[in-house]
Fold:
Amino acid sequence: MVHFVGAGPGAPDLITLRGAELLKEADVVIYAGSLVNPALLELCKADCALYNSAEMTLEQVLDVMRQGELKGKATVRLHTGDPCLYGAVREQMDALDRLGVPYDLTPGVSSFCGAAAALETEYTLPGVSQSVILTRMSGRTAVPEGEAIAALAAHGASMAIFLSAGMLTELQAELLKGAYTPDTPAALVYKATWPEEKTVRCTVGTLARAGQEHQISKTALVLVGNFLGKDYQRSKLYDPAFTTGFREGQP
Ligand code: SAH
Structure:
């Protein structure tokens, strides 16, 4: 059996209880390179076989999984954050289907959640934004045309941009083609929840400069939107005048 497990954003105690249990029982672990905190691998059995997938092709990963399955071993495929975002898990699952190898998935805390915690903020603020766009700049993996940052920026929604900290000048220019202005708040969060975590608050207009000044060009998320500003409306749910199925509102 192959278990796809979300390792969480970095801090070893941010893996789920289920994920930690699977790691402790695993005979084989294939982990996603430097994005996974090595402290998590300390949970593994002494004789657990460890593979760093950063040095492997899909075919090599599948081969390790298939060999493990033939020997009746429990294999954990440890992905950073949650496997469902930029995890390249679909191609692995489809191949395992073809090979007849069973698998399951255990979610993890995505780095965009870790980044919000690091900044002590909330993406969905009444009166500001009720949507979060998770996206990336086009790189060696192309982004479909309709999802270009400039197009998504037209919404002015809260945005968490993955895999793009090395392209901040281009990203800044793309963001400014949409509804954001040079004064729209932005932030860089480097290695959220790791001991070396760094948070830098800036604006869309100063994004590239902030990256240069703080030497952030990888393993970081770019957050953009007025949710990083001061203004918002309080919630209806906890408004004394608001009636819900559980509470009678008082005028
Ligand atoms: N599945 C992962 C994303 C993998 S893509 C998740 O759910 O978070 C790798 C990108 O994620 C990095 O380039 C960076 O943009 C972001 N990332 C991963 N871990 C991070 C962390 N701890 N802090 C900030 N960004 C992180």
About this structure: The helical segments are 17-25, 58-70, 90-99, 111-119, 149-153, 168-175, 207-213. The mean pLDDT is 96. The domain at 111-228 is CATH 3.30.950.10 (Methyltransferase, Cobalt-precorrin-4 Transmethylase; Domain 2). The longest strand covers residues 185-190.
